[in-house]
Amino acid sequence: MSSVYRLSGLLADPAGEAGYRDDHPERVGFFTDTSVCIGCKACEVACKEWNLVPEQGLDLLGQSYDNTGALGADSWRHVAFIEQRVPDPSVTSSGTDLGMPGIGAPEQPAAAEEGSGMRWLMSSDVCKHCTHAACLDVCPTGSLFRTEFGTVVVQEDICNGCGYCIPACPYGVIGQREGDGRAWKCTLCYDRLGDGLEPACAKACPTDSIQFGDLDELRERADRRLAELHQDGVGEARLYGRDPDDGVGGDGAFFLLLDEPEVYGLPPDPVVTTRDLPAMWKHAAAAAASVAATVVLSFLGRRR
Amino acid sequence: MAECHPVGFQWVIEARNRGAKVIHVDPRFTRTSAMANEYVPLRAGTDIAFLGGLINYVLSNEKDFREYLIAYTNAPAILREEFADTEDLDGLFSGFDPETLSYDPETWAYEGAEAAPAAGRRSDIVGDSPPEHSGPDQYGSGGATIGAKPKVDPSLRHPRCVYQVLKRHFSRYTPELVEEVCGVPPEHFRRVAEAITENSGRERTTAFCYSVGWTQHTVGVQYIRTASILQALLGNIGRPGGGILALRGHASIQGSTDIPTLYNILPGYIPMPLAEHELDLDQFVQEDAGQTGFWGNMRAYLVSMLKAWWGAAAAEDNDFCFDYLPRLTGDHGTYQTVLNQISGECKGYFLVGENPAVGSANAKLQRLGMSNLDWLVVRDLQMIESATFWKDGPEIESGELRTEEIGTEVFFLPAAAHTEKEGAFTNTQRLLQWHHKAVEPPGEARSDLWFFYHLGRVIQRKLEGSSEPRDRPLRELVWDYPCEGEIREPSAEAVLAEINGRGPDGPLSMYTQLADDGSTSCGCWIYCGVYADGHNHAANRQPGSEQSWVAPGWAWAWPDNRRILYNRASADPAGRPWSERKRYIWWSDEQRRWVGADKPDFEPTKAPDYTPEPGAKAQDALAGDNPFIMQTDGRAWLFAPAGLLDGPLPTHYEPHESPVANPLYGQGQNPTRQVFDRKYNRYNPPDGVFPYVFTTYRLTEHHTAGGMSRDLPYLSELQPEFFCEVSPELATERELEHLGWATIVSARTAIEARVLVTDRIRPLRMRGRTVHQVGLPYHWGPNGLSTGDAANELLSVVLDPNVHIQEAKAATCDIVPGRRPRGESLQRYVDSYRRRAGIPEEADR
Confidence band (pLDDT; 50, 70, 90) for A8? Predict the structure, then answer.
């Protein structure tokens, strides 16, 4: 057994890495296909109902139809709405123009000139349940832990509210609850998983934009969907967080997006914030050693 | 649809993923538009011009489904010489009386057919403000009776055949006209026209889904007629993947028309009898039952209903208690009722799950009516505005009403939610779906069934011993549902069993078993069979994977568990499927019956070559190739020779309030619309004081007038307050700031809203003219967690003549930055607009 706990890089079995026996369940996750998200926010409501997440206040944000704003202690699902003006309604009026065989005359330039085309992107964001989860790495109490399903969960009865996990998350997912002080985030409905149920958000999603399942299978499904969309001419479709080789070792909750991640408020190239910790410790140790050596030398010198 | 029916919209997404093309036509860019392959913005209130343009495209390019058209529609029927079209009379049809602002439909009849007697008789009910008469919703689902089968010209060449009349009527609805009226560029229109026609015919079908964006207009009925004509021309009715699908406002609105909460129909679309006209059962049945088609059996349907209501008391010798039925004395629709409250004629009011102080057009008129009652009963989940207007409504704030001067005694009774009671929801596909009680209702909350059953029981007890003849209908009413549990909840299933009906051998299984001799009882003939064999078929939940693709084992559809109405039209006149791809119901020569995945909406053993004997009645009068079995001629009506009060064909009229003149005709608006020009209901003239179009709508996050959402934190935080949506161009023109405040003004009042400036609302260019539209979600009122002014304060009451529906989806307004005045200054502020617009001022000085 390797004595070194891996903080970054390829890792096929985070639950096994965390010490679960080989017969632990398959790693599960979410594949959120934003090309079929209708922005109904049923995921936000179902999540709050199931997990008893408190209301976060009535505040008209003016960010299109998004009045949730961001993920946080009281919002474990967040649907982003992005309004984009596009030049040509016939090509991009739909989030996913399926590129059906063209009907009718080719596009008139006049329509394009108007620039009146519109695209409204919607995407339900959630904790990514990273393969390499910095929040978990930095948690001093062991409140954050890796479950047998490979997901990352905060234990509310252990969290002491130190807040280290909050800046550690490369996605800004975790928040500290006001008047409570503890850190809260998506549990991927750990309690439901134990009973063989899918998470509340996925259950409530009417269009199957949020799909729950074994991560390996979801990745295959996402690859197929991406190929379909590319074949249908939706060249801008891309997967986000699917790659096990990325800065967090791949996300347990990954996405099919129709634009750059930044457009959705997602970091373009997230890196587990503890990736450089071993190197940092090495540098720190070297620095400490050299300080100690200098001190020793100085004492030695004095004796002379 | 994605906005208001997100759960149903999953099937649209599924269809799209399987290659269906989704086209969304709407004044605003919604969540549906975001998912559509094609989004077409148009000016609110112009859909007849848009759909008429599609009809013209179909006709002038001969894209119609010709065999279907000739065999199954009235396209070949020949009209009278006297008929004159809107093209001849500059926007009017023949038969218009400028005195009464109504039509005599005699000239609309088929050549050689008798004049339509029903329409003439029905239209003589006039309310206090002409033209306020009752309309085709009183004909039952079969439409008006026509005297005889038409003469036809199958070649469609006769100049007076419906096909030619239709062609001429819509000939000026060109892509250029569509642009001028709707603001849709011609190339965009053509793309839609080509997509729809290429996706219709033998091999393919196209479906239309609509909601109140089509119905809430002074020409609301004619909107649906336009879509019907288009779908009938393309052969998209009675076939899988076709149809015109009405999306309902909330759960079981279909059910509440089937078992109606409407004043003018009885269960199963049987018309409500008229005072003075329909004195006995024979007379009623003779006048209203279609002589041919299934309505020919109306006596059996009605007698069975009377037996369900009055049981043993209903007998042959007393006309089965036909006399006990209430009678219509005029328009008793919701808006007329409000006017009657204000004038003091209507003294009491039940509001059951309805919040008119927020949800109805001209909300102030609603509150003024409710302030002038003896009593008001509000049954709801929350303390809605309609229960509290007397102490904290906008009129209290403005000083127009004083609590101590309002005499209405208000009773608030907490209601049980759908999860706290059992019952059936009937959805738009006519599916009855049973829901079970999940939890007991909290505290004193009770189901509507509980309330009405026990109310009826108490009233019956109070009337015990009465010898007044007027009390007999109540005393003799069969009112004996078994009650269960601590709260004595009546059994919903017992009610369903009564609706299903019973015969000498127990529960009935189909409406064809109903008899007119009193041997059967049935609460609603179209629901007969839902409780066949004593089993609750509405509760059937066979998984899709365990049955055919038509899924007859999921719940129960009326009538007779048929999933597509008029599905005889899915086969050609000889009974063969139009194509393999679209096969659904067809005639089997071996079995001598109609077969397929669904039940035939046709007599199962009537052969395609069946020809009726002369003088045949009811369904026997329909031939083996007449799929539209509820129509007296068995055909889909492109042209409605009877039954409509505002014309046999749809015609583009401008909304009652519009910033533009009608480019098509001298007649600007529907000449027969119901207008109520009076204090508190003044109209915006088209003179520039109110230069913008506004439309009202819903958001996913809230439910109608807010009674089910504005008190819930999880929903309220998602859309926390009232806002208006404007384009960046209008924001610039009126100096409106994103997230700032705007005041929106009509001749009725002024309201305030936060501003969302968005590219989703766009100015429409209509041949050199730009029209701005303002979007107003209508969920809010002063009560609850999420609050704001009610958008419906701005609307006037002006109605479609046929069904008295309000024009809520297109009106005019002004919009200016900043918050509205408060208190008495609000009235003075609106008066300044009225003065400029040249209409009477209202503030009391």
Answer: confident
Query: Does residue B368 carry a pLDDT above 90?
Result: yes
pLDDT for res B667:
97
- The 10 Å CB-count burial string (b at 16+, else e) for B52-65 is bbbbbbbbeeebbb
CB nearest B198 (choices: A58, A85, A103): A103
Q: Is the pLDDT of residue A42 over 50?
A: yes
| Residue A287: per-residue pLDDT | 82
In this complex, the residue of B198, B701, B717 whose CB is nearest that of residue A57 is: B717
Q: Touching check for A108 and chain B: CB below 8 Å?
A: yes
In a shared domain, residues A208 and A281: no
Residue A9 lies in a domain: no
Chain B residues with beta carbon closer than 8 angstroms to that of A59: 717, 720
Alpha-carbon span B309 to B292, nearest angstrom: 27
Q: Which domains does chain B have, with CATH numbers?
A: 674-837 (2.40.40.20)
Q: Are residues A83 and A158 in the same domain?
A: yes
Cα of A58 vs its chain's centroid, Å: 25
A279 and A202 co-located in one domain:
no
A63–chain B Cβ distance below 8 A for any pair:
no
Residue B119 has a pLDDT of 30
**pLDDT over 50 at A200, yes or no:** yes
Cβ–Cβ gap B188/A111 under 8 Å: yes
Q: What percentage of chain B reaches a pLDDT higher than 90?
A: 87
A225 & A300 share domain: no
Say how far apart CA B294 and CA B629 lie, in whole Å. 6
* C-alpha dist (Å) from residue B734 to B44, B119, B614, B798, B831: 21, 49, 69, 28, 21
State whether A157 and A256 are in the same domain.
yes
CB-based contact B37 A36, cutoff 8 Å: no
Interface of A with B in 16-55 (CB under 8 A): 36, 38-42, 44-45, 48-49, 55
- Residues A236 and A116 both lie in one domain: yes
Residue A291 and residue A263 share a domain: no
Nearest to B6 among A40, A64, A93 (CB): A40
Flag if B760 and A120 touch (Cβ within 8 Å): yes
Q: What is the pLDDT of residues A130-164, one digit of tens each?
A: 999 999 999 999 999 999 999 999 999 999 999 99
Question: CB neighbours of B211 closer than 8 A, spacing ≥ 6?
Answer: B1, B4, B246, B247, B248, B249
Query: For chain A, how many structural domains are there in total?
Result: 2
Residue of B nearest to A46 (CA): B714
Give the pLDDT score at A302: 65
At residue A206, the pLDDT reads: 97
CB contacts < 8 A, A to B, total 140
Interface residue of B717, B719, B765 to substitute, partner A, most A CBs within 10 Å: B717
- For the segment B247-305, what is each residue's pLDDT rounded down to a tens digit? 988 888 999 999 998 999 999 999 999 888 778 999 888 866 556 777 788 999 999 99
List pLDDT tens digits, range B452-465.
Answer: 999 999 999 999 99
Handedness of CA A261, A82, B208, B553 (dihedral sign): positive
The reported pLDDT for the residue numbered B126 is: 35
Distance (Å, rounded) from C-alpha B213 to C-alpha B695? Answer: 9
Q: Hey, is the C-beta of A277 within 8 angstroms of any chain B C-beta?
A: no
A287 and A225 co-located in one domain? no
Asked whether the ipTM of the predicted complex exceeds the cut of 0.85, the reply is yes
Q: In whole angstroms, give the CA distance from residue B133 to residue B726.
A: 38
pLDDT at A95: 39
User: Whole-number mean pLDDT of chain B?
Assistant: 93
Annotate B364-422 with three-state secondary structure.
Answer: HHHHHHHCCCCEEEEEECCCCHHHHHHHHCHHHHHCCCCHHHCCCEEEEEEECCHHHCC
Task: Give B717's contacts in chain A (Cβ within 8 Å).
Answer: 55-59, 67-68
